[in-house]
Design goal:
alpha+beta, three-stranded antiparallel beta sheet, globular
């Protein structure tokens, strides 16, 4: 490896794993571009970062998602950018929406909707599986949770794409900055209108719950509610859409696995777990050092920006033997959803959505092969997934 690798190049977004393996072997803590941040590629050091919020603050997420050129981003004020104890107080307010019981209650509706989506997919004709398959189910679920207008599903995805691209945009890329600023303004205006409607006419949804909630006797401010809704747009939509797309690619790239899972649908949860491990849609966790600290034999100064490469940790040979092999017989892991205070609150829901969507797809399709054109990958430091998957679906 010569020079600092740029993690945001199209080539590395399409396949970062050879680089990750080299970093784990030779430079588990090293500087990368964009911005010269410190990448943590190995499980041992990555866990140290995630278990020590006093030394490695989640304020790093806020710094990375609100660069000077953006001029403000509610995501950077969300609980994703908070450390304990502030983070815990806000997280407690929304835990009830993601309990196992709450997720199980959603299963019949999600299953029926996934079957509707798959029934509309064309067979033996080219189709882009991101808008046709990967997007609708997560958008449906997010809309149900927040009580959003179903007609805005595609617009929500476009906004989410812009918001997650912030970490990949350099200060000199002025042509890429304006669409992001516009997206922040549009999302702020839309969610502000949603909050005002719920204040006038409360319903059985998470926004109404947040308006009714009290933290130490005080209501949440509108800014706090907006920050949470922005975070939900990224965590509840973007990463789950990427998970769905990665499931499609895994079926396409491993026809033997697809045949096996079609023959035994009880294997679908294990298939989803291996997609999570090998694809890691939540790909990079951002932190900032609160003091000078040594990590992996490297001295990091106070204020150093750090990215824990979750996609690399999920392939660390010390934890996952033969880690590059896609193996649905491998034990599942919680690691793809992070660790510690910021473990993904929506993990059970994301697993449910992926399981039911794959179940519906396998009931209708006997195979998935590449369609005309290349797979296109979304550019972001914090998430990884395809933004376009040309495919051909074959009948069962």
């Amino acid at each position: 490896m010569s020079g600092r690798p740029n993690l945001m190049t199209p080539e590395l977004k399409a396949n970062p794993y050879p680089l990750y393996a080299e970093l784990r072997r030779n430079a588990p803590v090293s500087q990368v571009d964009p911005g010269g941040m410190w990448a943590v590629a190995r499980y041992e050091e990555g866990m140290y970062v995630l278990k020590n919020p006093r030394l490695f603050s989640s304020a790093g997420f806020g710094l990375a998602t609100n660069p000077p050129w953006l001029g403000g981003n509610p995501v950077s004020q969300s609980m994703g950018a908070m450390d304990p104890p502030q983070h815990g107080r806000l997280r407690t307010l929304v835990n009830h929406a993601f309990t196992s019981a709450a997720v199980n209650r959603m299963e019949p509706r999600v299953r029926a909707f996934a079957q509707e989506v798959v029934a509309k997919l064309p067979l033996e004709h080219p189709v882009d599986m991101v808008p046709a398959f990967a997007l609708p189910v997560p958008a449906f679920v997010l809309g149900n949770l927040l009580g959003l207008d179903a007609s805005l599903h595609s617009q929500l995805k476009r906004w989410a794409d812009q918001l997650t691209s912030v970490t990949a945009i350099r200060p000199d890329e002025t042509e890429r900055q304006e669409p992001v600023r516009q997206a922040v303004a549009d999302v702020r205006r839309y969610f502000s209108e949603v909050v005002e409607r719920r204040r006038r006419e409360p319903g059985e949804d998470l926004v109404s719950d947040l308006l009714r909630a009290r933290v130490e006797g005080e209501a949440l401010t509108d800014d706090e509610i907006l920050a949470f809704l922005f975070l939900m747009l990224l965590g509840g939509l973007e990463t789950t859409v990427h998970l769905m797309g990665l499931c499609v690619l895994a079926l396409m790239e491993h026809p033997d696995v697809m045949a096996r899972v079609r023959a035994d649908r009880s294997l679908i949860p294990r298939f989803v777990e291996e997609v999570l491990r090998t694809g890691a849609p939540g790909h990079g966790l951002l932190r900032v050092t609160t003091e000078e600290v040594e990590l992996g034999g490297v001295r990091l100064p106070k204020g150093a920006r750090v990215v824990v490469l979750l996609g690399s940790l999920c392939r660390d040979e010390a934890l996952f033997p033969n880690s590059e092999r896609f193996d649905i017989d491998r034990p599942g892991s919680q690691l793809p959803f992070g660790h510690g205070p910021h473990f993904c609150i929506g993990a059970p829901l994301a697993r449910l959505e992926a399981r039911l969507a794959v179940e519906a797809l396998l009931a209708r399709c006997g195979g998935v092969s590449p369609g005309p054109g290349p797979v296109v990958w979304h550019r972001s430091m914090v998430v990884r997934g395809p933004s376009s998957i040309p495919a051909l679906l074959h009948p069962a």
